[in-house]
Specification:
With 355 residues, the protein is α+β, with helices and mostly antiparallel strands. It has a domain at 119-214: PDZ domain (Pdz3 Domain, Roll). It has 8 helices and 10 strands. A hairpin with a 2-residue loop joins strand 6 and strand 7. Helix 2 runs antiparallel to helix 7 (302-319). The longest helix has 30 residues, at 84-113.
């Protein structure tokens, strides 16, 4: 069941992304030749007006084929003949729709939480575990709200835990709000310590208790925003690890790996309802992930198209000569081939991991 939900979710996220390009293209009066979901041979296709609509066999891609996107075709309503701001909106619309989808999924879940007696985490301290050594003057106090950890803004305990884990494990730079004022605690020796819980078992914790607030419709929207912005920041942190060498290409996951992780998240849940909710949270994260990744300045991605669009516009303004649009098309074609190769490698690596 969870595998089916994951595959369906992938198709939905791709459809939503391409729908963003499609809708804004139509709004800007740009000709759309094809709108398709999936890759490979067409299972269903239908010509309606100037646009061919198709559902293809493999649910791992999709396309909104816009007239003149890879070069001026001579068509008056082609992409390249529109103003820069219109082309920017068309290219950014796909990622915006993915961001919106990720937010809506979480907001709906949290909205129902407001009727079930659930509570949301905050970064306001309610107390400390027995033996916590850093309480009081010059340290932390009950009622302090942790604003940032090593410069990273924190809104939830999940964010606090992640940003604490990125440090050296010995000290951290904290900013807390106390009595309406910001207090800086630089090189503060907050680290994991061994504590004994109420059952007599030893645990490793920071020794902090945080306040919670009951879910309401307004809190649901706020927490949904926090979760989606956190997902975007996780993507950036992961990319930083990739470029710094802390992570390698073998650590990447594609559709096969993500479906496997969604299935695992669902199956490890206490009930089917909880499993579906956990899978939906995962879908929201993937949706935000797609939005961020698509805006990277890499050829063939939306961000790459935006980047080169402005580069070529700058060249035209400086040289007073319009560059050949086919050159940009060649750049994106080469980028697309490289991305396909990376996708194939990642997919093969995912299959090997599963085996």
């Amino acid at each position: 069941m969870y595998i089916a939900i994951a595959i369906l979710a992938f198709g939905l996220l791709i459809a939503v992304h391409e729908l963003g390009h499609f809708a804004v293209s139509k709004l800007m009066n740009v000709k759309v030749n094809e709108f398709s979901i999936g890759m490979g041979p067409a299972l269903i296709k239908r010509q309606k007006g100037e646009t061919l609509y198709a559902l293809r066999a493999l649910p791992i891609g999709g396309a909104c084929v816009i007239e003149g996107e890879d070069g001026d075709s001579g068509e008056e309503r082609s992409f390249t003949r529109k103003k820069l701001w219109q082309r920017l909106l068309i290219l950014a619309a796909g990622s915006f729709m993915n961001l919106l989808t990720g937010f809506v999924i979480v907001a709906v879940i949290y909205f129902f939480y407001s009727f079930g007696g659930y509570s949301a985490s905050t970064t306001t301290l309610s107390g400390f575990m027995d033996g916590f050594p850093l309480e009081g003057a010059g340290g932390l106090m009950a009622g302090d709200r942790i604003v940032s950890v090593d410069g990273h803004k924190t809104n939830t305990t999940t964010e606090f835990a992640l940003f604490m884990s990125l440090g050296d494990g010995k000290s951290v730079d904290l900013v807390v709000e106390r009595d309406g004022k910001l207090v800086r605690l630089e090189d503060f020796p907050l680290a994991l310590r061994e504590y004994t819980d109420e059952n007599g078992e030893k645990t490793v914790k920071y020794g902090l208790y945080f306040e919670t607030v009951p879910f309401t419709p307004l809190i649901a929207l706020q927490q949904a925003w926090y979760r989606c912005s956190f997902s975007a920041r996780v993507v950036w942190i992961s990319l930083g690890s990739l470029f710094s060498g802390k992570a390698g290409i073998s650590d990447l996951s594609g559709p096969v790996g993500v479906v496997s992780m969604m299935n695992q998240a669902g199956r490890q849940s206490a009930s089917a309802a909880e499993g579906i909710i956990n899978v939906l949270f995962f879908v929201s994260f993937i949706s935000v992930n797609l939005a961020v990744m698509n805006m990277l300045p890499i050829p063939a991605l939306d961000g790459g198209r935006i980047f080169f669009m402005y580069v070529f516009a700058a060249i035209e303004r400086l040289s007073r000569r319009k560059p050949n649009p086919k050159v940009e098309g060649y750049i994106h074609a080469a980028g697309f081939i490289l991305l396909l190769g990376l996708m194939a490698y990642v997919m093969l690596n995912d299959i090997v991991k599963l085996i």
